[in-house]
Specification:
Blueprint lengths: L13 E4 L3 H12 L4 E4 L2 H10 L1 E5 L2 E5 L2 E3 L9
Parallel strand pairs: 1-2, 2-5
Antiparallel strand pairs: 3-4
Length: 79
């Protein structure tokens, strides 16, 4: 995603409510395959996703996916 990681960059194709183990994996895979994805997360977890993206570890390597982080209202969290 161009610009500020974790901030909306236009229309989202998919929003995943809950970016835990399963939701994070689904969101990361969609994003790595070209979808514009938002995830609903809060607090330190939201900050880490906005800063680092979502990581998938496979075969000894980690791939990172950039997603838009939203709070529970669907709006981006305050900076």
């Amino acid at each position: 995603m161009a610009g500020d990681p974790g901030r909306p960059q236009g229309r989202l194709d998919t929003i995943v409510f809950g970016a835990g183990a399963v939701g994070g994996l689904v969101a990361a895979r969609l994003a790595l395959h070209g979808a514009s994805v938002g995830v609903v997360a809060r607090g330190a977890h939201a900050e880490a996703i906005a800063r680092d993206g979502l990581g998938i570890s496979e075969g000894g390597s980690v791939r990172r996916a950039r997603v838009t982080v939203l709070d529970r209202t669907g709006a981006p969290p305050p900076p």
